[in-house]
Specification:
mainly alpha
Length: about 250
């Protein structure tokens, strides 16, 4: 097996492992029935960790080889691409996929699945980049796990209230785990900073998509429950990301 194939396999594994927190969250939702405040707190911490990863793993690295204007432009393009996809899926019934009170009952099951896949692609894509650098980023991995865990809990709690059986929910998250693994493998293949066509500008694109995902999905859900405490929790997560990045 070539070194590239081995690396892609490792990236796929880490992508699947990080997304497996969705399955853990679903099991917690069905077995332990966690409260919304706990879910919101973990969401805010995970958002802070991912914000740190965007800053240290993507933007900072992209600026080493590309101009500020180029990086900024592709950050905006990435955010726009994610927002367009999120808007289209919301119109088709996937907008309440993270609601913990059962609003998904009126939505489309396919849109809920595709929306969850859309949420996971940017972060998994970037995770593959860190494997390309020789070692998976602990800060990014922790951020993805801490964002996926409450997503799995919140979405699955809502689907439980919407009368979805546990097996169907776990099957849905298993599909997302598979796509996340494939996205991480794609990130390994495409996000080489030395590549003039894909390198740093694709890093910036992924950063924009990831920032839009945090702003559209995690932070509003966290603020709805935690209110003004959301800010300190997000900053705490960012500080943890800073510490992990220094390891």
């Amino acid at each position: 097996m070539t070194e590239g194939a081995t690396g892609m396999g490792e990236a796929f594994l880490w992508g699947a492992v990080s997304a497996s927190a969705l399955l853990v969250g679903a099991l917690i939702a069905f077995r332990l029935r966690p409260g919304r405040r706990l879910i919101a707190t973990v969401m805010a911490l995970g958002a802070g960790l991912l914000l740190g990863s965007v800053s240290f793993e993507l933007i900072d690295e992209a600026l080493k080889t590309r101009s500020v204007a180029g990086v900024a432009l592709f950050v905006l393009i990435g955010a726009g691409a994610f927002t367009l996809g999120d808007w289209l899926l919301s119109r088709r019934g996937g907008g309440d996929r993270k609601d913990a009170e059962g609003a998904q009952a009126s939505g489309s099951p396919l849109a809920i699945v595709l929306g969850s896949v859309l949420d996971g692609i940017p972060e998994s894509f970037v995770l593959g980049l860190t494997v390309l650098r020789g070692q998976v980023s602990i800060a990014l991995l922790a951020g993805i796990v801490l964002s996926n865990l409450p997503e799995g809990m919140a979405s699955s709690s809502g689907l439980r209230e919407a009368k979805w059986p546990q097996g169907r929910v776990l099957l849905m998250w298993s599909a997302v785990v598979l796509v996340s693994g494939l996205s991480a493998a794609a990130g390994y293949a495409l996000l080489d900073p030395a590549n003039d066509l894909t390198g740093a500008l694709v890093q910036a694109f992924a950063a924009g998509a990831l920032l839009a995902m945090l702003s559209n999905t995690l932070l509003p859900e966290a603020y709805e429950v935690e209110g003004i405490l959301t800010g300190p929790f997000v900053v705490a997560g960012f500080a943890v990301s800073l510490g992990l990045s220094a390891l």
